[in-house]
Amino acid sequence: MFLALRELRFARSRFALMAAVVALIAVLMVLLSGLSSGLVNDGVSGLRRLPVTAFAFADGTRADGAFSRSVIDSGQVEAWRGQPGVEAAEPFGNTLVNAHSGAGAPIDLALFGVRPGSFLDPVPAGGTRLGGEDGIVVSSTLLDAGLRLGDTVTVDRLGVELTVVGATADQRTFGHVDVAYLPLDTWRRIHNAADGEATAVAIKARAGAAPDLAAGDAAAGTTSMTLADAFATSPGYTAETSTLTLIQVFLYAISALVVGAFFTVWTIHRTHELAVLRAIGASRAYLLRDGLAQALLILVAACGTGVLAGVGVGALVADGDVPFALETPAVLTAAGLLITLGLLGAATAIVRIAAVNPLAALGAQR
Amino acid sequence: MTLDTTTRTGLHLAGVTLRLGDGDDTVTALDEVSLTVAPGELVAVVGPSGAGKSSLLAVAGGLTVPDEGSNTVDGNDLAAMKPAARTAYRRQHIGFVFQSGNLIPALTAIDQLRLIHHLHRRRAEPREAEQRLADVGMAGKAHRRPHQLSGGERQRVGIARALMGGPSLLLADEPTAALDRARSHEVVELLARETRRAGVATVMVTHDTDVLRHCDRVVEMVDGKLSG
Ligand SMILES: Nc1ncnc2c1ncn2[C@@H]1O[C@H](COP(=O)(O)OP(=O)(O)OP(=O)(O)O)[C@@H](O)[C@H]1O
Ligand SMILES: [Mg+2]
């Protein structure tokens, strides 16, 4: 690194320019990662926190909007209960409703109808569990929005009054709407469903077992999907995540190209100097190692600065209404990828060093 | 491979032929050239442009391998070595002085010399760089970068760099091309002095007939052939 460090210092303004671009991309990466995690949380945290292995929907239900279209009956739930590897199968009701708080403020709710006492019945962090006919356990985000334990929420048009009896410790949202758990019977009344009907069968696998979903579907006449696959049922989920992923992929590519282009120009600029170095006895390996170390150094510095700045900006953004959640693994992955791809871009340029002919050092300076 | 560093025998080129280019466009840059340079001897190579002077240095220094003939330095046949071994041999036993110094722009004068230590990886004499820089009268400008030095000063640093590690063979390609008359004399005098003091076999290519009086011997190259 003898040479690498001294060249960094000597050509610092040029390196700083490229590092600034990479740092800005790193800032954008962190913000996108936060937005992405935030949107995913907003879209599917309600599903993700259910202790469910898979959902079985009415036969032939497509993934998008499955929770709004599917209807299953108690026979199908029973059929799933009998499947090998299944610890529990429960009817699960899902409806999006508009409601008003006692103070008249509009509230959108994703109603999760569950049988009290079943494995789906949530344990609230504050208040009591589901019990009474009109009691609901709500996502913590509703408390942040001003709702209190004991408040009454009235479902629009039907006029059904629900009382907040408990709240979860964490965010539980589905399709960007706050979740309210309620007894399955109350859900049926609101959803106008017949006795025994529900939206889907919630399946919980025995510890260590992986139930055969295809066999279960054949037996119960359902279409099942794992919990992760069911994320796609959240309204807008697929479009949002694929848009963000696309933007991120483009940013990675741009960053790798910027770094690659910089080091291409830099290496060509150094051709004569490299020929001299080879002539006076520097091995290819020495020069390659030196060049890569230089690229790694500048990438780590630029990404480090960018990530720190991004986390700072993110902290400001997160206070607002934007769905934003900085998750350490996601941020570290983004930084790691930026560095790795940047290094790859730099490497494609730096390999030119191997081709430099020491003969070029003789004669006139080109 | 064991290298004999106790007995120096200098440079021996015997029947060296080098063809450059490919296909119909081949040029015989060196045509059965033989040359012997003893340790402590400064040999000047003169001749018209395109005669093959740089090619001669390239073969002598192991930058390229001749098509025919042999090239030995202190009894070690450079053409027979694998490329990596040749690079290592250059590093350890051959010094180059190029036209206009060809110093690394990012490095200060002293770092140009310390870089050689770095390439060697094994620790050499710790004060060698400082000493060599002082030997060429550049101790006072050790921390200047090439663009802050005059052409003559750059060549002095270039010579000090070439002498790092005590080479057996010193090759200089038009070291005075970018210098005025007075500076040229200083630089060649320095080369001659160091050649004798360190017992190095030195070959200097030059267009500058003025400086030939500092040399022990002058050979002329015309169309790839040597006449002395
Ligand atoms: N890479 C190359 N490919 C083909 N021919 C080459 C190459 N390098 C040099 N030559 C040719 O080889 C011959 C000798 O070139 P060389 O550079 O050794 O001459 P020189 O005596 O050093 O000339 P000058 O005084 O101009 O530096 C010339 O005819 C030149 O055109
Ligand atoms: Mg030449």
TrEMBL record, chain A:
It is a multi-pass membrane protein. Its main location: membrane. Residues 249-358 form the ABC3 transporter permease C-terminal domain. Keywords: Cell membrane, Membrane, Transmembrane, Transmembrane helix, Transport. Coiled coil: none annotated. It comes from the Bacteria. The chain crosses the membrane at residues 249-268, 296-318, 330-351. It is found in: Cell membrane. This is ABC transporter permease. It comes from Actinoplanes flavus.
From TrEMBL, chain B:
SUPFAM superfamilies: P-loop containing nucleoside triphosphate hydrolases. Residues 11-228 form the ABC transporter domain. SMART domains: AAA. GO terms for molecular function: ATP binding. Keywords: ATP-binding, Nucleotide-binding, Transport. The keyword ATP-binding applies. The keyword Cell membrane does not apply. This is ABC transporter ATP-binding protein. It comes from Actinoplanes flavus.
